[in-house]
Amino acid sequence: MRAALRIVVLGATGFCLWALGAAPVLAQASPTLTVRPSAGTVGTTVTIRGEGFCGSAACSSVQLSFAGILVQDAIAVGEDGAFRLRLTVPGGLELGLKSVAASQTDSNGEQLLGLATFQVTLQPPAVTPPPSPTEPPGPSPTFLPTTTPAPPAEEAGTSGWIWGMVVAAGVALAALAGMAIVLWRSRRLVPVKEVRLPVLVPAPDEAGAPRPPVQGGDPSDWPPSPRQGDSGTPGPGDHGRTG
Fold it and tell me: Within a 13 Å sphere around the CA of 228, how many CA atoms are in the beta-carbon half?
């Protein structure tokens, strides 16, 4: 009985040890790979995510191939056994479902492989926008000559009257200046004649004394000459007269 119990305990312990040692291997034996989007044309940018790979430094990096074409090498895996990257679907692929594979070698030299698919579709034809409707050409614009409006009649008459006054004033000033020049020249050229007035000697006064001579003047202002019989001396006009 004791022997049988010992065998059971040893078997259970061994199974537990085997399960603990095989768990990492079983976990690493089933990596997964996803591609988003899962369909598109050549040149489409896709996001690829891998999980369940070996994150130990003893494992190799991951290589990624697209339809058997190596598109990415030396992909680093995190400690959680996952990686993520973006790439462009390579050209030259035919239409249809294509395989996407991520491979890695673990520390035991075993190959870890993650698989996914991508559907290559036909490039949609380029959409040509319809031509925009064109309007029929309209009549060409007619350009009218621009004319400068004439000034109002009132303004034109006022300006003419002002110019006429200015011209008349100029003519009057020129005439006055000409007359002044003529007078000035005639005054210099006409000689002044010397006029000599006659000297008249009046008759002697009543006492017989001679009077001073008078030059010019009005004869009515001269003193009267004495008549004969007034002083006994004949006057200038009494010569030849008889009493």
Answer: 9
Distance, in Å, from the CA atom of 156 to the CA atom of 168, rounded to the nearest integer, reads: 18
Q: Could you tell me if 204 and 211 are in contact, meaning their C-beta atoms sit under 8 angstroms apart?
A: yes
Q: What angle do CA 199, 203, 209 make, to 5 degrees?
A: 115
pLDDT in tens, 139-196: 776 666 666 666 555 555 667 778 888 888 888 888 888 888 888 777 665 555 565 6
In whole angstroms, give the CA distance from residue 198 to residue 193. Answer: 16
CA atoms of 53 and 78, how far apart (whole Å): 9
Q: Which residues pair with 120 in a beta bridge?
A: 40, 96
3 state SS of 85: strand
Q: Got the DSSP string for 37-70?
A: SSEE-TT-EEEEEEES---STTSPPEEEEETTEE
Condensed to tens digits (0 to 9), the pLDDT of residues 210-219 reads 666 655 555 5
CB atoms within 10 A of CB 146: 5
Question: What secondary structure does DSSP assign to 101-152, as a single string?
Answer: EEEEE-TTSPEEEEEEEEEE-PPPPPPPPPPPPPPPP-PPPPPPPP-PPPPP
Two structure tokens written together for 163: 């110019």
